[in-house]
Amino acid sequence: MTRISTPPPGVPVTPDTLPQPKQTSLAGYHSGDLALGRTAVPNGLGAIPQVPLEYFKSAALPPLRKQIDIGKIKTSLEGAEAWSRHSGWTAIKEPKLSGVSEEETLEPLSKVFDAVVCEAAKDLHTPATLRFVSRPTQSPHSDLPDSSLPDAYLLLLEKKSVDIPGAKKNSAKNSDHDSWYDIAVSFEFKKSDGTAERKYVIWGLHHIMRSDPCRRAAFGVTIENTEMRFWFTCRAVTLVSKSFNFFSEPEHLIHFFCALVFAENHELGWDPTIRRVCVEDETQYIITVETEDGRTIEYQTTKVISDFGVDGVSGRGTRIFKVHLRSRDGKLDAEPVVLKDSWRESDRDREDKILEQIFDDLRKLGTEVEQEARQYFLTVVEAGDVTVHGMIDGTTSLLHGSDLPADCASYALSVDGILKAKPTRSSEGLAQSLPSVPGATKHSKIQHRIHFRLVFKEVCTPIHELQHLGTAFQTLQDVLKGLLTLQLLHSVGWVHRDVSTGNALRAGEVGKLADLEYAKRMNSKASNEVCTGTLDFMACEVEAQKYLFEPPKVLSVADFFKDNKDKDKFPYKFNPLHDMESLWWIATWILYRHVDKVGHQQSEAQRKWFDELFPGRFNARFSAFSADVDYEVLPTSFQPAAFTVVSAMRQALKIAYIASENSMPPAYTDALAELQRVFTSHLADGVKHSKHVELHTPGVKRSYQEDPMFESRDNKHLKVRSFLRSLPKC
Question: Which of 230, 181, 227, 179 is nearest to 201 (CA)?
């Protein structure tokens, strides 16, 4: 096997980016408590760009129709006594002086909306697409549980939602039930001056983007007495405009209404390449994939496999569906496939392109090596970037090619309450991904994203859903055995950088490694602003962003300064040992998370060790890795495998790190080769010791059986969707 070349001395190394946790991966957000969710979302954003009104109008809003003259409309409204330059909007009293409730004070905003639209329509032949609705005591319908009550919203006249039998109806007289899936703009009002409404409007934006696969962007408005702000979010950024007095400066509100009301649906943030349908009383989606050779193919969903990726307001927004090919006459192909819908950073290659680069590198080792390798990766059936109205769908087009203005300030989203930084321990035993985002920085550039779709042949089972310990270890063993996935990546100089339970899959009798979007060549000098990691399975050095196993040195003063210069020359860099450590964390997580009998709970000691090893916060990985782990707290049937996997494999990792970091940059080639041999041997022992050992999530009853050793897609029931639908997502 070809070995990896350690970067030679003297070659500058680009350090990787320090990751930080997303608040929407923490327990408070997933508790179902609306107040905690409304705290988590703005806390996760931290601070967002506050942009001038003119920038917001040109970048975030749809362009005005040519016939619309804002100055003329303002003059006409003044002539019709709808607005006065002395007292503002005649239909609305200054909120904090009105003497009535917020609902009564701001309900007449609908009259302002109607007056503006009526004047604008006089010179247009384009019908309005939105209407103003104010039902502040009623919660719009959503497939996800959500009891939030927006004060008002702009609603599509031709709705995108579908009627689902049994869905909650709106109690307003003579009205159909409103749906979040038809809301283009959500409004939040407050009579007094202040900032309390920001978390409510952000929650509304967040709920639209997390719950609706048909949305690419969303808008919001906050009103605090006479001050108004506009809001916009997409997968790359959330923006807020500077405030203005909508009584004395009506032109901004007139522009806002006119830009949106006469816009096409795709300009309002909807995706024309995916549509919602009702199938057997359930919501499903028909999704179009456009390939690079110009073919358009339709797939219809039958299940949501995963949508944890939409929990963040911005980011990849990954959704994974089980789908069937749909013919022109609406018939579905019998064989299921998997469709991935996601938004990659614009400076990254699409995942299928990365796969081909890996295979090209493997081909240099021989065609047999390449063919052997292909069975350990997912098979891409179709791939392509999404196009909307002839343009690549990305945040660049949503923002009309604009970057942030040079004088862009940050708008702090301070909210009450701080969430405890600990991932959810779900009742289904899912490994909660804790994606990472860059720390707070000055807002000077938008990291734009491109919308893409991939279709994979294999319908796999993530390792965290396997139901026998032997099968789980065998899956990890497959990842290492011979020229399997990670070894093949490393042998041609690649690292994965996000090995987790969601990316270690089983298809029939073969282990596969998925989600290669963040894989890169070791000699790559590219550095991205955004990096990712799953905290429970992140290597210690990845979390710390420094090397932790260098031998202690006794240095003179001169040597001390020379040593520090060497560290500057060779900063921390991800290497293959970090991927290997992630495998150890997965194996350890499986053992300490589960029990071996239906309905049983973890012992207090096992639960304590699980929380010690996986505390769900940063700056805790190295101490957890270094601790003498007690495997005797595990169920008796787990212990033989645990001794081999938890204790022996961890010791081998330590030895590999120490050996590789005897020199800088780390010389990991020989250490990695030995570590791969040790891991393969110990995982084989783990399989041998746990062939008939079952895996059960504490307290959860299993309603079906599976093969003791090998699971196939034909008999594996995907149970994640029912759990996901019970959680709030963004």
Answer: 230
